[in-house]
C-alpha cells in the first residue's frame, strides 16, 4: 500500500485537474494559508481584507474541490450500498476463526526486559459458512467442520468465540454509507492510497453531535471507481461489547487498547466480499513508578480474534411455480 500527503486526488467528476496542484486534505494547511493572507493584508494595509480575516470568508478553490470530491465519493458509496442490499447474496465459503487470550508479565532487569507468559489459551474453528437472503433478511448458517485440529460435522453450529461476536460482515459499509444512514454522520476526507492496484480515498465517519447511532462506524478505504469499501478500521466506540470490556479494564486500573478492522478482498460481479476480519483488545498496567533498585513488573492481557474467509462458491435459488391443478 502506498499513499500519503504527497499524493494528488483524481477527478471523479470528469474535470481536468491541474496536474501540478496538490489538493491538501489537512485542515491545518487551509488555516495556515488563510493566516498568511490575513498577515499580508494587515502588513500591506489593504482596507478590503480585515473583515475577510475575521472569520466570514468565501471558500477557497482547494476547499471547494475537496468538498465536491468528498460528496462525489459519498454518492458513489451510497449507490454501491444500494446494489449490495439488492443483490441476491447466496454463497458458501470457508470461515477460519482463531481466538486467543494471552497474559504476560514483563520485568525489567540490568540485563534488559524479560517477558514471562503467565497464562494463555488458543482456540481454532473452521466452518462451512452459508449466507442466504430470506423474506426476513439475511440469514447465516454455519456447519462446524473442524475444532482445534479435530474433524467435526455439526450442521447448524453456533459461533463459539468467547470475547466477541460478529455477523453479516459483508454489510459493514452500509451502516455508514447507505443513503438512509449518511445523514447521521459527519465525513472527513483524509487522503488517497492505492490498494491492490486500486485507487482509493480514505474517508472517516463520525456521528453528528447529539445523534445516537446503533451501527458500526469508522474509517473506510473507498474505491474511486465505484465507492466500494476495500478496507474499514472501525471506531471502538461503535462496539458496545468492546466498551463494556474497556470499562471493566479501566475499573481494574488497566489501560485498554482496541484495534478492529475488516478487509473486503474478494470481488464478484462488482461487489466486494469479506476476506479478513480481526479484533485485538489489549489491557496493560500503567507505567509503574520507578523505585531505586526495584524491579518493574508490567502485566498485559491480550484477547484477539482473527477470521479468514476463502473458497467462495456462489449459487442461485430457483423458485418453482406450480400451476393450479384443473380437470379437463
How does the SSE layout of this entry go?
Layout: E1 2-3, H1 27-44, H2 50-53, H3 61-86, E2 91-107, E3 114-134, E4 137-147, E5 150-155, H4 174-177, E6 185-195, E7 198-207, E8 218-223, E9 229-234, H5 240-251, E10 255-263, E11 266-268, E12 271-273, E13 276-284, E14 297-314
Antiparallel strand pairs: 1-6, 2-3, 2-14, 3-4, 4-5, 6-7, 7-8, 8-9, 9-10, 10-13, 11-12, 13-14
Describe this entry's structure for a reader:
With 328 residues, the chain is α+β, with helices and mostly antiparallel strands. The chain has one domain (81-314). It has helices at residues 27-44, 50-53, 61-86, 174-177, 240-251; strands at 2-3, 91-107, 114-134, 137-147, 150-155, 185-195, 198-207, 218-223, 229-234, 255-263, 266-268, 271-273, 276-284, 297-314. Strand 11 and strand 12 (271-273) form a beta hairpin. The longest helix is centred in the N-terminal third of the chain and has 26 residues, at 61-86.
Give a summary of the structure in a few sentences.
By secondary structure, the chain is of the alpha+beta class. The protein contains 5 helices and 14 strands.
Strand tally is 14
Strand order of the largest sheet: 1-6-7-8-9-10-13-14-2-3-4-5
Quaternary class: single chain
- Low-pLDDT runs of 5+ residues are 1-54, 289-294, 318-328
Q: What is the beta-strand fraction?
A: 35-45%
The pLDDT mean sits at 77
Q: Which class of secondary structure composition applies to the elements?
A: alpha+beta
What Rg, in angstroms, do the CA atoms define? 26 Å
Terminal CA distance: 70 Å
Share of helical residues: 10-25%
Major pleated sheet: 12 strands, antiparallel
Shape: globular
